[in-house]
Specification:
Subunit structure: Part of the Bam complex.
Low-confidence stretches: 1-27
Shape: globular
CATH superfamily: YVTN repeat-like/Quinoprotein amine dehydrogenase
CATH class: Mainly Beta
CATH topology: Methylamine Dehydrogenase, Chain H
Mean pLDDT: 85
Family: Belongs to the BamB family.
Radius of gyration: 22 Å
CATH architecture: 7 Propeller
Strand order of the largest sheet: 1-32-31-30
Subcellular location: Cell outer membrane
Oligomer: single chain
Strand content: 35-45%
Function: Part of the outer membrane protein assembly complex, which is involved in assembly and insertion of beta-barrel proteins into the outer membrane.
InterPro entries: BamB, PQQ_b-propeller_rpt, PQQ_rpt_dom, Quinoprotein_ADH-like_sf, WD40/YVTN_repeat-like_dom_sf
């Protein structure tokens, strides 16, 4: 009798746990998105191994009517923007970590073994390879003479564009623990501006590589190293006059090119700010989206309906903000008031049977370690919005 009661108690406990799990799943029901944004897929191609479950953001690059994109397996692909037709493919025979960037007729790709490769935009032919101090997980940036890249060990390295020879290298002190990520440096006429795991935004002389000024966006505070993380993982951005940057466990700030702080507001994030319609938009670390006035830093609106969905960086497209989540949805949000105006799911065809009376996402349950979310930054183009999924699909979305 005792064992029978014990089994009954165990069964009740198991059922309660199952019901709690179902309730937890149902708590993530998508908010209404029946607004004016009507997204359609123009074309969609698979590039191979996407970011997958590894925490990488393989951002593509657009030059006129051509898209350049990479996969983690080591392949660089040129695609016609309007049609999605492949123009050429280059296998670098090493895993790729940091996406692709371009300047004039050159592409720059960072490999897992700490190498930066320069390729021709015409056919992908290799021009040079240069060893870096460590691996780089963000895109490089370039001007007419040099290419600049930040590695995970806290260094910024400048290389000559024609040969790959090192011009200078600047190393900043690193904390005991940091978030594994860096941003792409912002290049101005005189400066290379980038963020560090110390919570500082640092401006380096573009010619000499020496610091010209720094601004603190986050102050380490807390008992544990986790609580003291203040990384500036996103890239600083500029409207041509003012520089905007943000830190995890820190602030979002507007800074002049002379290093003077114009305004600072609370805004903990892993991502970069987005600028549009006189506002600064930011995905916060709790997956809410905050809008700030570009000139004063005043908070305009806060979108909280997508919290907990593993959002990426917001991208301005038309009068909307687009943001991807870990389930493979792209949400379109009004830049004016933060309302959700539309949505589209970008996943491969269902791997399993359709479950009746279940959310659409149930049909694409993660299988064998696959990840169908969207982590890479999206790109707004003249033809529409470019989205690169964790499953390796590159898609062009237009809004009706």
């Amino acid at each position: 009798m005792h064992s029978r009661h014990w089994f009954k108690s165990l069964l009740i406990t198991a059922c309660a746990a199952a019901l709690a799990a179902c309730a937890s799943t149902n708590d993530r029901v998508l908010p209404d998105a029946s607004g004016e944004a009507k997204p359609d897929v123009v074309w969609r191609i698979n590039l191979g191994e996407g970011p997958g479950v590894t925490y990488t953001r393989l951002k593509a690059a657009v030059d006129g009517d051509t898209v350049y994109a990479v996969d983690t397996g080591g392949t660089v692909t040129a695609v016609e923007l309007a049609s999605g037709d492949r123009l050429w493919t280059k296998d670098l025979e090493q895993p790729i970590l940091g996406g692709v960037s371009f300047k004039d007729d050159q592409l720059f790709v960072s490999l897992r073994e700490g190498t930066l490769v320069a390729l021709s935009t015409d056919d992908g032919s290799e021009q040079w390879r240069a060893m870096l101090p460590s691996e780089a997980v963000a895109q490089a940036a370039a001007d007419e003479q040099r290419v600049f890249i930040q590695t995970v060990d806290g260094r910024v390295t400048a290389l000559e564009r024609d040969t790959g020879a090192q011009a200078w290298s600047y190393e900043a002190g690193m904390p005991v623990l940091s978030v594994r990520g860096t941003g792409t440096p912002l290049i101005t006429d005189r400066l290379v501006i980038t963020g560090y795991a110390t919570g500082k935004l640092v401006a380096l002389d573009k010619v000499l590589g020496i610091p010209r000024w720094d601004i603190r966006l986050g102050v380490p505070d807390g008992r544990s190293e986790l609580e003291r993380l203040v990384d500036v993982d996103g890239s600083p951005v500029s409207d041509g006059r003012i520089i905007f940057a943000a830190a995890y466990h820190g602030k979002v700030a507007a800074v002049s090119e002379m290093g003077e702080t114009i305004w600072q507001e609370e805004g903990s994030t892993y991502t970069s700010p987005e600028l549009a319609l006189g506002s600064v938009y930011l995905t916060l670390d709790d997956d809410s989206i905050q809008a700030y006035d570009m000139m004063t830093g005043a908070k305009a609106w806060l979108q909280t309906e997508l919290m907990g969905r593993g959002l990426g960086q917001v991208t301005a497209t038309g009068t909307y903000l687009a943001v991807g989540d870990e389930e493979g949805y792209v949400h379109f949000i009004s830049q004016v008031d933060g309302g959700i105006e539309g949505r589209i799911m970008l996943r491969p065809r269902p791997l399993h049977i359709n479950y009746p009376h279940q959310p659409e996402a149930t049909n694409w349950r993660l299988s064998r370690g696959r990840d169908f979310g969207i982590r890479s930054n999206m790109l707004d183009t003249d033809e529409g919005l470019l989205v690169y999924t964790n499953a390796g699909d590159l898609a062009l979305i237009e809004l009706r």
